[in-house]
Amino acid sequence: MNVIEKLNSIKSGELTAKENVENFLKVIKEKNDSINAFIELNEENALKQAEEIDAKIANGEEVGSLAGLVFGIKANINVEDLIISAASKTLENYLGSYNATVVDYILAEDGIIIGIANMDEFAAGSSTETSYYGPTQNPNALGRIPGGSSGGSAAVVAAEMCDIALGSDTGGSIRNPASHCGVIGFKPTYGAVSRQGLLDLSMSLDQIGPFARDVSGIALALNTIVDYDETECTTIDWDKPDFTECLEDKSLEGMKIAICKDFIEVTDEEINKTVNKAINKLVDAGAELVEVSFDHLDLCLPTYYLINYVEFFSATRKYDGRDYGYRIEEVCGDEVLRRIKIGSHIAQAEFSGKYYKKALKARSLIRDEINAMLENVDLIVGPTVPKLPHEIGEKLDPMEMYAYDVLTVIANLAGIPAASIPAGTVNDIPVGLQIQAKPLDDEKIVKAMAVFENTQN
């Protein structure tokens, strides 16, 4: 049963919202101690909300578009009265005092929040090993990382602990763990989803997006969270589509998709083989395949991290121990401290022109090139992550860790939508197919994923 079928069964009374919550709570109690994907549960409120939804359905009252569906929320997205720690000791006692806009949207449509998902500390990582609460296991490759920084959100979906989860994506933090865990992860166009209530990693790059096990879950989530928010300055006021309209599509006739040889060259051979098989299914469904090139791949990681360091340093100045939490530099982990120190250094007046301003120029160059690549095609397709996830505890130096992001940071630098859908496995480890599109062409990605999913069945 996919997510939209489950929604319809709840609305028809075949399955109650309470049963849906109870089923997930049972799985959480069986699996979470070993997987460490949820770091806080919202059990009492979730059951109460489910009972209220069931009562409305029983009385013939109208219910929301997510009625009874169960969500996990990444630990850097505010949920009122739950601990929103960003997986850091800095905020281990911080109770959310309000709901992020996306959380209010979910609750307004009768979605149910079941818990807070683990993550890399302050989203600074690609493995979910930097969490103050300990690493999260990859449910579909036990012993290996789930990816990051939204590793907990990917894992709660992969382990079937909820219907949908929200994460944040700054340089691949939704798509990377979606690829490693064998689920779908979607980063919308920058500004399509409100960032209000998200704890910043890098404000010009961060975007909230959903995880699900099937495309219908992604579509339902996007229908809810994609919206203009007058309280958040980056959101776009646009005529958003109904993302569920293309869920039954089986043809990509008239759609042109591109592969990029530069992306293939930096990716492990076995991953490329698996991803190519997935791309061939899109071609079999009618898509025309062309090849493009990208001349500035070597610029992407340094550009991304220079911007990330400076914006993260600025974002963390509020964690000074006076208003809430502890002083971040005194309690944070090594990777967070590294980013704060480098960001502080680069932000100084004498270095800003040398590093940060040059990074902003490079970002414009990258954005222009990716937009030029997309000018005559609908989608760019290829591997999500260039290598398989390492074993938990394996020592990687920072540059080896950052290399996970080389194919995903481009979408954040350019502000374009991108998603990862399971392409298959290599050595029984999931790998993802990344699909990227022009700004505000998010629906084309959903359509391609729906057709891909429908050809599997």
From TrEMBL:
One Pfam family from the record: Amidase
InterPro entries listed in its UniProt record: Amidase, Amidase_CS, Amidase_dom, AS_sf, GatA
Catalysed reaction, written as an equation: L-glutamyl-tRNA(Gln) + L-glutamine + ATP + H2O = L-glutaminyl-tRNA(Gln) + L-glutamate + ADP + phosphate + H(+)
Biological-process GO terms, alphabetical: translation
GO molecular function: ATP binding; glutaminyl-tRNA synthase (glutamine-hydrolyzing) activity; transferase activity
UniProt keyword ATP-binding, yes or no: yes
EC number(s) from the headed UniProt entry: 6.3.5.7
Residues annotated as catalytic: K74 (charge relay system), S149 (charge relay system), S173 (acyl-ester intermediate)
Gene3D superfamilies: Amidase signature (AS) domain (3.90.1300.10)
UniProt GO cellular component terms: glutamyl-tRNA(Gln) amidotransferase complex
Membrane-spanning parts: none
Domain of life: Archaea
Domain Amidase: 19-445
Alphabetically ordered keywords of this record: ATP-binding, Ligase, Nucleotide-binding, Protein biosynthesis, Transferase
Database matches in PANTHER family: GLUTAMYL-TRNA(GLN) AMIDOTRANSFERASE SUBUNIT A, MITOCHONDRIAL, TRANSAMIDASE
Function: Allows the formation of correctly charged Gln-tRNA(Gln) through the transamidation of misacylated Glu-tRNA(Gln) in organisms which lack glutaminyl-tRNA synthetase. The reaction takes place in the presence of glutamine and ATP through an activated gamma-phospho-Glu-tRNA(Gln).
UniProt subunit comment: Heterotrimer of A, B and C subunits.
Family: Belongs to the amidase family. GatA subfamily.
Protein name: Glutamyl-tRNA(Gln) amidotransferase subunit A
